[in-house]
């Protein structure tokens, strides 16, 4: 994909992205905040606020970890970008959309718990974010004028994104087809590092 580079520092794009991510993380906790007055109206004790709302707490912690990880990868990638183009902006907007949407399936996790559709929707949203991140990598690699002259994207970053996308695709298929696996399929992501190391070993 050949794109016309916009010779401007991408910091404004990065700052905007960081602000949207911060808002999305804040939205994650709002359902938990609302749990407290509801528990009080239902006559629940303080400890029952925790024990009776474990799915909501699980969803919050899982999504907080997921968004943090996605943001770290995105943030580190833009350290190697010195300009931007319209395709890069659009792909970044797609990535942001997945981050903004994630609180929605997170709320569904809290309400519906171990539901196959909810698990699939949740994992598919994460997969979409990783695919957009892979798209950002491909756009910059196809247009060297977008990359930093002193610190271009490292060669291992693209295989890392592709590996994560492949593992998430497998996780999605397993969550939708194998009973009772659901969110446990996300543990497949721990295979990402060994797979990447093996790939680089055989590439040498």
UniProtKB/TrEMBL annotation:
InterPro entries: TMEM175-like. It catalyses: K(+)(in) = K(+)(out). The chain crosses the membrane at residues 12-33, 53-72, 84-105, 117-136, 157-175. It is a multi-pass membrane protein. One of its GO terms (cellular component) is membrane. GO terms for molecular function: potassium channel activity; proton channel activity. Keywords: Ion channel, Ion transport, Membrane, Potassium, Potassium channel, Potassium transport, Transmembrane, Transmembrane helix, Transport. It is found in: Membrane. Belongs to the TMEM175 family. PANTHER family: ENDOSOMAL/LYSOSOMAL POTASSIUM CHANNEL TMEM175 (PTHR31462), ENDOSOMAL_LYSOSOMAL PROTON CHANNEL TMEM175 (PTHR31462:SF5). This is Putative membrane protein. It comes from Actinomadura pelletieri DSM 43383.
């Amino acid at each position: 994909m050949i794109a016309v580079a916009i010779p401007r520092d991408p910091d404004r794009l990065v700052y905007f992205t960081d602000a949207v991510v911060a808002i999305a993380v804040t939205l994650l906790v709002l359902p938990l905040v609302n749990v407290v007055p509801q528990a009080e109206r239902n006559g629940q004790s303080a400890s029952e606020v925790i024990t009776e709302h474990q799915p909501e707490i699980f969803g919050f912690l899982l999504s907080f970890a997921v968004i943090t990880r996605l943001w770290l990868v995105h943030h580190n990638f833009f350290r190697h970008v010195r300009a931007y183009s319209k395709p890069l902006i659009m792909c970044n907007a797609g990535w942001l959309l997945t981050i903004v949407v994630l609180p929605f399936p997170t709320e569904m996790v809290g309400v519906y718990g171990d539901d196959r559709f909810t698990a699939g929707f949740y994992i598919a949203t994460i997969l979409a974010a990783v695919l957009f991140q892979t798209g950002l990598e491909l756009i910059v690699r196809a247009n060297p004028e977008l990359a930093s002259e002193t610190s271009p994207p490292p060669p291992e970053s693209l295989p890392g994104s592709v590996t994560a996308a492949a593992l998430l695709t497998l996780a999605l298929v397993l969550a939708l087809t194998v009973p009772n696996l659901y969110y446990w399929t996300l543990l497949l992501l721990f295979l990402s590092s060994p797979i990447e190391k093996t790939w680089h070993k055989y590439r040498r």
